[in-house]
C-alpha cells in the first residue's frame, strides 16, 4: 500500500463535504494546501431534493429548480397563507449541486478526488490516516462525513427520532398547481395520531412533488407511505389522473446524540455525522453552508475547525422539542399548529435558523401551550433512572 500525504482530507462529499470544498476554494488560505477528497460514489445521481429558505438572492439561484415567495399551512382547525416577505423558499436538485461543485473542484489544481470507499479512519495525535482497500492516505486534518457506528447502538440515553418520508413527483393531465405557492405543512392527513404531515412543492402547473413525512421513533413501510400519498392526492388535492415521474424517500435523524464530541484537533466530523442537521426540523442544506463557512473561518483564525459551531441556546430549545416528540409524539401536531397560528412565517424562519434574539425567541416560545414544554424541561433536568 502506498502512503500519500495531504494537508486536509475530506471523507465523503455529500452536502457537507461539498459545501466545505466550495468554502475552501473561495478562501485563498487553502490555495497552497493539498486537499484530498475520498468519496465512494460518483455523485452523478439525483439522490435527493433539498429545500431551504433564505432572504433575497442567494448563492445557488443559478442552479435552483424552483423558488416560491408564498405558501400555505394547513391543519384540521385552520389554514393560513404564508407571506414570505423578503424570504424565498427554494428547491435544488442534488444532481445540480453535485455538478456545480464538481466543476469548481476539478478546476482547482490543489484538490484531488478519489472514488474509493473508506474502510477506516485512524485518528491519533499528530497525523491521521485514512484506509481504503488499496491506499493509505495521511492528512494533518481529516473532515469525516461517515456516521459513527455508536449512533446506531441500542443505548437509550439519547433521543433518536426518525424523520422518514416518501415523495412522488407527479404529473397531471390538467393544470392543477399554483407555481407561486407551496404547501409547507399540511396536517389534515396523518399517520394514526403521530406527528406527520404532507408538503407540496409545485414545479409547474402540471407537476409537483408531494411528500408524506413522519416524525417518530419508527419509520413506515413503503406501502403505508404510498397509501397516504394516494389518499392526499385524491382526497385533499382532488386530483384523479396523474402519473408518477420520480420517487424520493429518505430518513433524517432528529437527535440529541453528541456527534460533535467526536471532533478533535486532528479530525472534524461534518454534516449529519457532525450534528449539522437541525435536530428539531431535519433541515441541513443551509446549515452545511453556514457551518462549512465557520469551519474555514476557524482554520484561518488558527482555531480548532469545530470551535463554537453551534448556538447552545438553540440546541437547548431543540432538545426540549425532541423530548416532547419522543415521549408525547401525538402532541407534535398541536405544537406546529400553535407555532404557525401565532407567528409570522418570517419569525418562524428566524427561529428555526437559530438567528433570533432572546426577545424574538420569547415571542415564539410564548405562542405554545407551556405545560408539555415544562414537563419536558423537567424530564431533561432530572437525573435519568438507570
Ligand atoms: C432524501 C433526502 C432529502 C432531504 N431533503 C432535505 C431538504 O429538503 N432540506 C434540507 O435542508 N435537508 C434535507 N435533507 C437532510 C440533509 O440535507 C441531507 O441528509 C444532507 O445530504 C446531509 O449531508 P451530509 O454531507 O451529512 O450527508 P450526505 O449528503 O449523505 O453525504 C455523505 C457522503 O459520504 C459518502 N460516504 C459515506 N460513507 C463513505 C465511505 N465509507 N467512504 C467514502 N465515502 C463515504 C456518501 O457516499 C455521501 O456522498 C434530506 C435528506 C435526504 C436523505
Report on the architecture of this protein.
The protein is built from 9 helices and 17 strands. The strands form 3 sheets. Strands 1, 2, 8, 9, 10, 11 and 17 form a 7-stranded mixed beta sheet that branches. The longest helix is centred in the C-terminal third of the chain and has 16 residues, at 285-300. By secondary structure, the protein is α/β, with parallel strands linked by helices. It has 3 domains: 2-48 and 92-154 and 256-300, FAD/NAD(P)-binding domain; 160-254, D-Amino Acid Oxidase, subunit A, domain 2 (D-Amino Acid Oxidase, Chain A, domain 2); 312-381. Residues 11-17, 38-41, 48-52, 117-118, 145-146, 248, 250, 252, 271-272, 277, 282-285, 288 line the site of flavin-adenine dinucleotide (FAD).
Helicity range: 25-40%
Count, helices: 9
The parts where pLDDT drops under 50 for at least 5 residues are: none
Main sheet overview = 7 strands, mixed
Binned strand content: 25-35%
Give the class-level CATH name of the largest domain. Answer: Alpha Beta
* Structural domains: how many: 3
- DSSP, total strands: 17
Computed structural class: alpha/beta
Which molecules are bound in this entry?
A: flavin-adenine dinucleotide
Instruction: Write the CATH homologous superfamily of the largest domain.
Output: FAD/NAD(P)-binding domain
> Could you say which overall geometry the principal axes of the C-alpha atoms support?
globular
Which second-level CATH architecture of the largest domain applies? Answer: 3-Layer(bba) Sandwich
Amino acid at each position: 500500500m502506498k502512503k500519500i500525504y495531504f494537508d486536509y482530507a475530506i471523507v465523503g462529499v455529500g452536502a457537507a463535504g461539498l459545501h466545505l470544498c466550495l468554502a475552501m476554494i473561495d478562501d485563498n488560505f487553502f490555495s497552497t494546501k493539498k486537499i484530498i477528497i475520498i468519496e465512494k460514489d460518483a455523485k452523478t445521481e439525483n439522490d435527493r431534493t433539498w429545500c431551504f429558505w433564505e432572504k433575497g438572492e442567494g448563492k445557488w439561484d443559478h442552479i435552483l429548480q424552483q423558488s416560491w415567495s408564498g405558501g400555505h399551512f394547513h391543519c384540521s382547525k385552520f389554514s393560513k397563507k404564508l407571506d414570505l416577505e423578503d424570504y424565498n423558499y427554494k428547491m435544488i436538485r442534488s444532481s445540480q449541486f453535485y455538478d456545480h461543485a464538481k466543476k469548481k473542484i476539478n478546476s482547482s489544481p490543489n484538490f484531488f478526488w478519489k472514488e474509493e470507499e473508506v474502510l477506516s479512519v485512524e485518528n491519533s495525535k499528530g497525523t491521521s490516516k485514512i484506509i481504503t482497500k488499496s491506499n493509505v492516505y495521511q492528512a494533518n486534518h481529516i473532515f469525516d462525513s461517515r456516521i459513527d457506528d455508536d449512533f446506531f447502538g441500542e443505548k437509550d440515553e439519547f433521543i433518536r427520532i426518525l424523520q422518514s418520508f416518501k415523495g412522488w413527483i407527479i404529473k397531471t393531465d390538467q393544470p392543477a398547481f399554483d407555481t407561486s405557492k407551496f404547501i409547507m405543512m399540511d396536517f389534515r392527513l396523518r399517520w394514526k395520531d403521530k406527528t406527520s404531515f404532507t408538503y407540496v412543492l409545485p414545479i409547474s402547473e402540471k407537476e409537483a412533488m408531494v411528500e408524506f413525512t413522519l416524525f417518530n421513533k419508527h419509520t413506515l413501510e413503503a406501502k403505508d407511505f404510498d397509501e397516504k400519498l394516494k389518499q392526499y392526492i385524491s382526497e385533499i388535492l382532488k386530483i384523479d389522473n396523474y402519473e408518477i415521474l420520480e420517487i424520493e424517500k429518505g430518513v433524517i435523524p432528529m437527535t440529541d446524540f453528541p456527534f460533535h464530541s467526536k471532533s478533535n484537533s486532528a479530525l472534524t466530523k461534518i454534516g449529519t455525522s457532525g450534528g449539522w442537521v437541525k435536530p428539531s426540523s431535519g433541515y441541513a442544506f443551509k446549515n452545511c453552508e453556514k457551518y462549512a463557512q465557520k469551519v474555514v473561518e476557524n482554520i484561518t483564525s488558527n482555531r480548532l475547525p469545530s470551535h463554537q459551531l453551534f448556538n447552545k441556546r438553540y440546541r437547548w430549545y431543540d432538545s426540549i422539542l425532541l423530548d416532547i416528540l419522543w415521549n408525547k409524539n401525538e402532541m407534535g401536531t398541536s405544537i406546529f399548529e400553535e407555532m404557525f397560528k401565532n407567528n409570522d412565517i418570517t419569525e418562524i424562519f428566524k427561529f428555526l435558523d437559530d438567528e433570533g434574539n432572546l426577545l424574538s425567541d420569547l415571542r415564539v416560545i410564548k405562542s405554545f401551550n407551556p405545560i408539555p414544554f415544562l414537563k419536558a424541561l423537567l424530564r431533561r433536568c432530572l437525573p435519568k433512572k438507570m
